[in-house]
Design brief:
The protein is α+β, with helices and mostly antiparallel strands. It has two domains: 48 residues, no CATH class; 309 residues, Outer membrane efflux proteins (OEP), CATH 1.20.1600. The chain has a four-stranded antiparallel β-sheet. α12 packs antiparallel against α13. The two termini are 69 Å apart. The relative contact order is 0.10.
Length: 491
C-alpha cells in the first residue's frame, strides 16, 4: 500500500524547490528531493485520508465478482436412451412421485413417465433458469444501498497561499434506506410468484406426460384391433378372389369387397400415424430424441374422485393450486410497490458529512442534507403505474379463479356423458361378442355364409374401438381433472 501511495504522490505532486543538498549519488538527489516535497505538501490528515481511501479501494476490489466464460455449444443432441438419464425422486414436486422408485429397465408406467418429464423436460430447464434470475433480483433488492465517498485535492497556482487544499465527504441516500424493507418484501413476493408459476408449469408437464402416455397406450391397442380387422378382411378377400376366378362370385361383388378392404387399411394407417405423432410428442416432452425407444406399461386402474371429494377440493382450491397462489403472491408484490410509490411522493433525503481544508490551511467540518422538492413530478406517474398494475393482477386473479371453477364444471358434465356412453358400449360390445361367436360357429358348420359372419365380427371390433376411445378419453379427462383440482398425484 505504501508503495502504491508513493507512486501516486510522485506523479501527482509538483516539485517547487531546488536541488537537495543531501544527495550523495548521481540518482539519490531525486529521491531525497521528492521525499522532502511530499513531506511538505501532505499533512497528517491527508496521510490518513489517503490510507483510508486505499484500504476502501482494496476492500471493494476483494469483494468484486470475477468473469467466468460460458461458451455456447456448437453441436447439441438429445439423449436417445432412458437408462442413461438420472432421475432424483427427492426433487419431484409431488409427494407421490418422491415415493416411487424410478426403474426404466422394467418398462415405464405412468408415474415413471411423469418423473422423467419433470427431470428432463427442456422447457422446465429454461423455466428453472428464469427462476434463478428472479431469486438473483430478490437478492439484489435485499442489499443495502452503498454510501458515496467524495474526495478532492486542490493546489494553489497563484497568490501568497502555499498550502494544498483537500476535501472528503460521505453521503448516503436516507430515502433508499428507509424504503429498503418494503423493497425486500416486494422482491421476495415476486420470487415466490416465480417459484409457484414454476411449480404449476411442472404440474402441467406432469399432466401432459400422463395424457400422452394414455394416448400412446390406447392408440397402440386400437391399432392392434385395426390390424386384426385388416387380417380378417384380407383373408376373406383372398377367398372371394379365388371364388371369382371360379365364377362363383361376380366381379362387382369383388370390387365392393376390395373397397371395404382399402377402407379398413386406411383406418389402420391413420391410426398408425396418430400413434407415431403421439410417440413423437411424448419423446419431445421427455426431452428425448425421436429415435428413442420407450416401453410403456399398461396403465393401472385409477379411481375417479367422488362428488364429495370434488366439493371439498373446490372449497380450498384458492389455497392449494399453484397458479392461483402465484397470482396471490404477484398481487401482494404489486400492493407493496403501490404503497412504496405513494410513500415516495414525499421528499427524498440525502445526508452527508464532509471535512476539508482550503489553501489558507483553514480546516472545516460540515453537515449536509439534500431534499427533493415535490413541486412538479411528485412521483405521480409511478403511483399511477403501480395502481394500474395492482388492479390488473386483482382482475386476473378473479378471472383465473372463475375460469378454474368453470373448467372443472365442464369436465364433470363431460365425464357424466362419457360414463353413460361407456356403460352402453360395454353392454352392447358384450352382446355383439356373443352374437359374433355364435355366428362364427354357424358359418363353420355351413349354416351361415362367411360374409355375414365376418360382417358381425367387424361390427364387434368397431365397438371395441369405440370402447377403447371412450376409455382413453375418460382417463385423459381424469388426469386433467386431478390437475385442475390441485391433486395431480396418484390417488
Amino acid at each position: 500500500m505504501r508503495r502504491l501511495l508513493s507512486r501516486w504522490r510522485d506523479k501527482a505532486l509538483p516539485v517547487r524547490t531546488g536541488r537537495s543538498r543531501m544527495a550523495k549519488g548521481p540518482n539519490d538527489h531525486r529521491d531525497g528531493f521528492r521525499l522532502r516535497a511530499i513531506g511538505a505538501a501532505l499533512s497528517p490528515g491527508t496521510h490518513a485520508l489517503a490510507a483510508a481511501t486505499g484500504i476502501a479501494l482494496c476492500t471493494m476490489l476483494a469483494g468484486c465478482a470475477t468473469y467466468q466464460p460460458l461458451p455456447l455449444a456448437q453441436h447439441a443432441r438429445l439423449p436417445d436412451k432412458v437408462a442413461d438419464l438420472k432421475v432424483d425422486p427427492a426433487s419431484m414436486p409431488i409427494p407421490a412421485l418422491r415415493k416411487h422408485v424410478f426403474d426404466p429397465s422394467r418398462g415405464l408406467d405412468m408415474t415413471d413417465v411423469a418423473m422423467l418429464a419433470v427431470a428432463n423436460n427442456p422447457m422446465l430447464k429454461i423455466a428453472r433458469d428464469q427462476r434463478g434470475i428472479a431469486h438473483a433480483q430478490a437478492f439484489a433488492a435485499g442489499l443495502l444501498p452503498d454510501p458515496v465517498l467524495d474526495v478532492s485535492r486542490g493546489y494553489p497556482t497563484s497568490g501568497p497561499a502555499d498550502s494544498t487544499a483537500y476535501s472528503a465527504g460521505l453521503t448516503y441516500d436516507l430515502t433508499a434506506l428507509l424504503s429498503h424493507a418494503s423493497d425486500v418484501r416486494a422482491a421476495r413476493a415476486s420470487a415466490k410468484q416465480v417459484d409457484l408459476n414454476l411449480l404449476w408449469q411442472e404440474w402441467q408437464v406432469i399432466a401432459a406426460s400422463r395424457q400422452l402416455f394414455v394416448r400412446c397406450v390406447y392408440q397402440a391397442k386400437m391399432l392392434g384391433v385395426l390390424r386384426d380387422e385388416v387380417r380378417q378382411r384380407g383373408r376373406f378377400h383372398a377367398q372371394l378372389a379365388q371364388a371369382q376366378r371360379h365364377g362363383d362370385v361376380s366381379l362387382a361383388q369383388l370390387g365392393l369387397d376390395q373397397a371395404a378392404l382399402q377402407a379398413v387399411q386406411s383406418r389402420r394407417d391413420g391410426m398408425a400415424r396418430q400413434l407415431l405423432a403421439s410417440r413423437q410428442a411424448l419423446d419431445a416432452l421427455l426431452g428425448l430424441s425421436p429415435d428413442a425407444t420407450l416401453t410403456l406399461l399398461p396403465p393401472a386402474a385409477r379411481p375417479a374422485p367422488s362428488k364429495a371429494e370434488i366439493a371439498r377440493e373446490l372449497a380450498t382450491l384458492a389455497q392449494r393450486r399453484p397458479d392461483l397462489l402465484a397470482l396471490q403472491a404477484g398481487y401482494e408484490s404489486a400492493d407493496i410497490r403501490y404503497r412504496r410509490a405513494i410513500w415516495q411522493q414525499f421528499p427524498s433525503i440525502d445526508v452527508g458529512f464532509s471535512r476539508g481544508r482550503d489553501t489558507d490551511a483553514i480546516s472545516s467540518r460540515s453537515f449536509q442534507v439534500s431534499l427533493t422538492l415535490p413541486l412538479f413530478n411528485r412521483n405521480r406517474g409511478n403511483v399511477a403505474i403501480a395502481k394500474a398494475t395492482r388492479q390488473a393482477l386483482h382482475d386476473e386473479y378473479t378471472l383465473r379463479l372463475a375460469q378454474a371453477r368453470s373448467a372443472i364444471a365442464r369436465l364433470l358434465q363431460d365425464r357424466a356423458i362419457l360414463q353413460r356412453q361407456r356403460v352402453e358400449l360395454t353392454r352392447s360390445a358384450a352382446l355383439q361378442a356373443g352374437i359374433a361367436e355364435r355366428l362364427r360357429q354357424s358359418a363353420t358348420a355351413g349354416d351361415l355364409s362367411e360374409a355375414r359372419s365376418l360382417d358381425f365380427r367387424l361390427r364387434r371390433d368397431d365397438q371395441r374401438l369405440e370402447l377403447l376411445a371412450t376409455g382413453q378419453a375418460m382417463l385423459e379427462q381424469q388426469v386433467v381433472l386431478e390437475t385442475l383440482l390441485a391433486n395431480p398425484g396418484p390417488r
